[in-house]
Design a protein that fits this description.
Elements (H helix, E strand, L loop, with lengths): L6 H41 L4 H22 L6 H14 L4 H18 L2 H7 L1 H19 L1
Helix pairs in contact: 1-2, 1-3, 1-4, 1-6, 2-6, 3-4
Length: 145
């Protein structure tokens, strides 16, 4: 935190970090859904490979490409927990009044509990979840055929 910022600027800076955190979570979930569609299509393509050994190779390549493409899309490579901890440290080490610190920590905890809850994750990433399970289940089925 810059020691020359006013209380107002510090508060605005922290509020912006919290909003960026929320946007990052939502972008992450949207990106997984978008890439999940390509994973589904690529998995269908793996089924079209005639040799079962080459199907496995194609599937492994598909998974590597999926995670590589997804990794490139995410700007902030820190985990959600690391980002939240950094924001929390900024709030606690700031010169803000205690009431404002509590308000910003409450805002942060509200986003963590809402955006990262299991129910919200299932709702917002349902396309990815279905496509991911299809990919792995279908490869398990292809081994038995």
């Amino acid at each position: 935190m810059n020691p020359y910022l006013s209380e107002f600027d510090i508060n605005k800076n922290i509020e912006e970090q919290i909003l960026d955190y929320k946007r990052h979570i939502r972008y992450y979930q949207k990106s997984l859904n978008d890439e999940g569609i390509w994973l589904f299509l690529a998995t269908l393509g793996c089924w079209g490979v005639p040799d079962s050994q080459m199907q496995k190779v194609a599937f492994i390549i598909t998974i590597v490409i999926f995670f590589y493409r997804f990794y490139l899309q995410i700007e902030d490579k820190r985990t959600f927990k690391q980002i939240a901890n950094d924001i929390e440290d900024d709030v606690k080490s700031s010169t803000l009044l205690e009431d404002i610190k509590k308000a910003r920590l409450y805002d942060l905890s509200k986003i963590k509990s809402k955006e990262l809850s299991l129910i919200n994750t299932i709702k917002t990433m349902s396309i990815f979840i279905v496509c991911f399970f299809f990919a792995f289940i279908s490869m398990g089925i292809s081994k038995s055929i």
